[in-house]
Design brief:
about 160 residues, alpha+beta, 5-stranded antiparallel β-sheet, about 15% strand
Length: about 160
């Protein structure tokens, strides 16, 4: 499922009365291979609460997760925690990422992650109480639109 299709679902939520007071920030894009080792460049909104997505270079959604500052350093820390140690001058930037040996994940996705050929998309969500709701909502929307399958790196909803 493409990112823009999934994000359209967030716009629909804004009209539901249960979400009154919820603020969803604009998606911010971080191209990993090009920007990871730049001392001036950081994952957008790294210390804030919200959602992060791993997205292919073609904008296919691979993973939907959440990061909360109070329980783990925010979007930036949580989105990086899956990748393991990074190597600057090697073809494989993240050879030990969380899914490196998971044969249930397509080889092409595992290789793209290892080589840093993906984007991290961050979306700030306030107040914090809505983060889990939105993570579950987007994972469910993805599953409904994708023949009952989750994004390839998500093992479960929530």
């Amino acid at each position: 499922m493409l990112l823009h299709s999934l994000l359209e679902n967030l716009d629909q939520l804004k009209s539901i009365s249960l979400t009154k007071g919820m603020v969803i920030g604009e998606p911010q894009y971080f191209t990993v291979r090009k920007r990871w080792f730049s001392s001036d460049d950081r994952i957008p909104d790294a210390e804030k609460n919200g959602l992060y997505l791993y997205v292919s270079e073609n904008f296919d959604v691979w993973y939907i997760g959440k990061g909360q500052y109070k329980s783990g350093g925010g979007i930036g820390y949580r989105s990086c925690s899956h990748l393991g140690k990074s190597y600057r001058d090697q073809e494989e930037m993240f050879p030990y990422h969380e899914w490196a040996k998971d044969e249930l994940v397509e080889q092409a996705i595992r290789e793209s992650l290892s080589r840093g050929h993906f984007q991290i998309v961050t979306i700030v969500v306030e107040p914090i109480i809505f983060i889990s709701l939105l993570e579950t909502f987007l994972q469910t929307a993805y599953k409904l639109a994708s023949k009952n399958e989750l994004p390839p790196l998500n093992k479960r909803i929530g």
